[in-house]
Amino acid sequence: MLLGEFVESQQHEVTLTAPENLKYDEFVALLKVIYPPHEEVTADTYGFLVELADFYQVENVVQKCDKFLANDSMIPMIEKLCLVDKYKLTETKNACLNSVELKKPDFVRDLTKKPEYKEISAELKVALLENGLNSAEDMISCLKKEKLNLEYGKDSAENPKIL
Prior knowledge:
The protein has 163 residues and is an all-alpha fold.
């Protein structure tokens, strides 16, 4: 809105509408990320920054939040997944789906029991289940190979029929 090809970007004075819960210091933090020296998104700021950036259509700040979330391992997975859905955070979605945690059946089972899981879209749930299914298939394939190696010896060159 302020930086894109909008009518407001050409005006000298703009009246902004604000979300109900807007706090002065949060809006200032958004401006500090937008304008030089471009402060970084942090664990203390990503939550309100992505919300405000989405509200004001400041795509580069949404992308900064996306990149931060994708690379931060301290933020709970369920929180990331909720944000992925709400703000269409592609990089975070890919990082979550490729994470080691989602390859563990117990972790995914626990994730589905969290109240926030109900907030996740059906589309994202399908992606999570497909990811889990692919991981399970990969695990089964590895286990079959290990079993064959144990049954027929470790050198598969001696047993070409296995290939």
